Amino acid sequence: MGRLRYDSTLEPITIDDVTLAHMKIIVGTKLRRQESFMMSWVPADESGDGRLTAWIHPSIPLVLAFDSTEPVPVDPERIARMMQNLNAHGELIIDEM
Predict the structure, then answer these.
(1) Which phi and psi (to 5°) does residue 72 adopt?
(2) CA distances from 49 to 11, 38, 92, 94 (A)
(3) Distance, C-alpha 13 to centroid of its chain
(4) 46: how many CB neighbours lie within 10 A of its CB?
(5) Is residue 52 within 8 Å of residue 94, measured between CB atoms?
(6) Which residue from 44, 48, 2 is spatially nearest to 27, judged by alpha carbons?
(7) Digit-coded pLDDT (tens) for 61-93
(8) Which residues are CB-neighbours of 25 under 8 A, at least 6 positions away?
(9) CA separation for the pair 76, 42 (Å, rounded)
(10) Quick check: helix, strand or coil at residue 20?
(11) Antiparallel, parallel or unpaired: β 91-93 and 2-6
(12) Higher-confidence residue: 37 or 1?
């Protein structure tokens, strides 16, 4: 289970390595273009938090930590669907990938 740490006081978001590998491409593409967007997810822990949303911006540090040392293969069709949904709605919804 990989982790995404965003500049906040929250604990890292736990995301499976395959989803994280796809997110890496989507988020990297948007931030390289200097495009901000919202990202939403439901915490996997029992913190009591419902859906959380973060504003993703190029100036805010972001770290993606994979459990595996080997690169994870990505599905180009999944990348295309994720990018299409993000561009259509302005929000990357992690649990709908």
Answers:
(1) -90, 130
(2) 12, 17, 18, 15
(3) 9
(4) 6
(5) no
(6) 2
(7) 888 999 999 999 999 999 999 999 999 999 999
(8) 74, 79
(9) 25
(10) helix
(11) unpaired
(12) 37
Rg of the chain on CA atoms, in Å: 13
Closest CA to 41 of 8, 69, 75, 67: 8
Unique residue bearing structure tokens 């994979």: 66
Assigned token pair, 5: 């740490």
For residues 28, 39, 89, 66, the Cα torsion angle rounded to the nearest 10 degrees is 40
- Using a cut of 0.70, tell me whether the model's pTM lies above it: yes
Quote the CA–CA distance of 56 and 84 in Å, as a whole number: 17
pLDDT tens digit string along 38-52?
999 887 766 666 788
Backbone angles phi, psi at 53, to 5 degrees: -135, 135
Alpha carbons within 13 angstroms on the beta-carbon side of residue 52 total 17
pLDDT of residue 43: 75
Question: Which ranges of 33-94 would DSSP assign to H, the alpha helix?
Answer: 76-89
